[in-house]
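User: D-aminoacylase, Nonomuraea terrae:
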Amino acid sequence: MSFDVVISGGRVLDGTGAPPYRADVAITGERIAAVGRLAGAAAETVIDATGRLVAPGFVDCHAHGDAAVFDPAVQRAALRQGVTTFVLGQDGLSFAPGSAETVAYVSRYFAAVNGALTVGPLTVGELLGGYDKAVAVNTAYLLPHGTIRYDVMGPSPEPASRDDLARMLRHVERGLSEGAVGLSSGLEYLPGRYASAEELAALCAPLGGLPYVTHMRAYGPRAGIGMAEVVDIARRSGAAMHVSHLHGPADVLLPLVERALGQDVDLTFDTYPYLRGNTILAMVVLPPEVPGAEPGRALEMISSPELDAWWPTLDDVWPRLTVSHAPGLEWAEGLTMVAAAERAGATPAEFCRRLLTETRLEAGVVSARPDEGPKGEESVRRMLRHPSQTGGSDGIYVGGHPHPRGFGAFARFLGRHVRELGDWTWEQAVVHLAGHPARRFGLADRGLLRRGFAADVVVFDPATVGDRATYEAPRTPADGVDDVLVSGVPVLAGGELTGATPGRALRP
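Assistant: Predicted structure for D-aminoacylase:
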């Protein structure tokens, strides 16, 4: 027997939930050729996995690498955690499909989250073509509802007309034909916030088993509002539902999840193992009447007296915000809003207005949750133990001081929540991080170590795997994952990039 690659001597976690077993993994071309005892097998490349676990590459169900994935440092950050696939197009906002004006809008409005692409118009096929074999990780893409709505209706808050819906539906149908793996929405962002459940359900109709992935209209103690809409959209459309970053409080969320499942909703959700979020500052601090989708008007309102009564209502919010992205005011990145304001000789409200104005709403923040502490940690643990959970980092790579989750979430799942806390067994972890998400997004030949499947393989040390990125040093790579293959090609060896870019733009 002769193969291109043999990974020998490790214990295999095949993604089915079976316990680890001693086996070799042989690869020919882009595919797994054999899994078993392969004594005497010859190969051009042999990876000694003695003492390590061998698993299918992990699927990050919620990543904001839409522009950042071309950065080798971002690819290295993902691979050092065993992540071989990014699901992009999250929160209803990304770069395709859209006219030049639409691409420019998304690049500006969501710059602190996705980064920017400046070239438009852009189709889904063209965007996927730009990823294919250009980076070291695979990419899958969700059709972003907010982008589609903007392309058809601009920043209008009005309900979609029948003609508007027909035009949006044509975008969805074409995007699916070009390889999208579902439809996403961001119902706290603009212009997605203006959509009704009826509009969203109509756009879900062509999904055919692929998921509707939603950043809901409300989270936390108000999550019942968001989940009721999810159930309504499922009832109207029959589509599979996937809720983004559903963390806690678990006492509120878990009964909502069980109720939806009891109503025969095909529901999954993703979580990341942290208590803080990361998003655009404007979403956190501006009242709903400020049209963030129209920067000119929004900036006029921010600088005018008409919001004077609003800013004092945020006094409890300022201590929870840390500046992550502040183009032109980089000195503030990594400082809390309170500390940055003190350094600027201003109140937090005054500095926030300056930050929004001088960055033209591009500023980003890491935000602490009100329930941060032991109760919040317990909620995270209870949510990730639910069988409908899948792993997602919600990784943002923009700015000088982003959230550490893009550099550590999957390693933290393994090191802290498997090895230290026992929330999952190793075999359960691989189901949650590989097998389950691959099925959810229609990636039929990924997520398992099985003959004939694509050879996305991660080799990691169960004794040392773990995150090192912190809120103080968020870009620190993880430990314990030294060898990773994508489509049969070594992309990480000895913990460093090999320079190969076999990552595929995955289509269901």
